[in-house]
Amino acid sequence: MDNTGRGRVAKPSKVRKMLGYTPEVREVSEAEDEVNRMSSRLLDAMGIPGTLTDLPAAAGPCDAVDPDFTTYYTVDHPWALGKADVGNFDTAMENLRSRLPGMGWRITKDGPMNSVARNPEIKAVHTTSGHHVAIRALKQRSGDLKPQISVTLISPCYQAPEGTDLSRA
């Protein structure tokens, strides 16, 4: 990496070695739209009613190769399903267990979180796109926090097209 300040980004020859893949060149808006669509399909797969937080997917730094967010980026989409009947959380998680593989996801973890509450957690990777998701049925939460199903969907690293100003993404 060039460590001279803003613009610290791994050289293209090292990016593949560091990430294990060559990032696809993709417009930020396209990558964000794809993550939003994937989130929608995950919500549908849960198959339970509730209120969705209204946060769209957003680009951020691909820290491994470009911590200053100048050339490479990822798209994160943290969201939650709240105001859902806690009794339906097990149904949502079971639906995900059975439906994710048919949607192209490989489940990498399915079990309790490493926490006092031991809430259920499913982690998966999309086999063709490389997106990762963590889904947690937070039935028991500390303090006044309400139960929810928490989802964090993260894209692989992408390379912004030449001339893209990621600070405006």
Give an account of the 3D structure.
This protein is an alpha+beta fold and 169 residues long. It has a single domain (12-168), classed as TBP-like (2-Layer Sandwich), CATH 3.30.2030. The protein is 22% helix and 30% strand. It contains 3 helices and 9 strands, in the order H-E-H-E-E-E-H-E-E-E-E-E. Strands 1, 2, 3, 4, 5, 6, 7, 8 and 9 form a 9-stranded mixed beta sheet that branches. Strand 6 (120-126) and strand 7 form a beta hairpin. The longest helix has 19 residues, at 28-46. The protein is elongated, with a radius of gyration of 18 Å. The two termini are 23 Å apart. Mean pLDDT is 91; it is low at 1-5.
Brief synopsis:
The protein is 22% helix and 30% strand. With 169 residues, the protein is an alpha+beta fold. It is elongated and about 50 Å long.
User: Average pLDDT across residues?
Assistant: 91
Distance between the termini: 23 Å
- Identify the CATH architecture: 2-Layer Sandwich
Q: Which strand-content bin applies to the residues? A: 25-35%
Shape: elongated
User: How many strands, what sense, and barrel or not for the largest sheet?
Assistant: 9 strands, mixed
Order of helices and strands: HEHEEEHEEEEE
| Number of beta-strand segments | 9
**Count of the domains:** 1
Taking pLDDT < 50 over at least 5 consecutive residues as the criterion, the unreliable ranges are: 1-5
Separate helix tally: 3
- Rg for CA atoms: 18 Å
- Structural class of the secondary structure composition? alpha+beta
Task: Report helical residue fraction.
Answer: 10-25%
- CATH class category: Alpha Beta
How is the CATH topology named? Answer: TBP-like
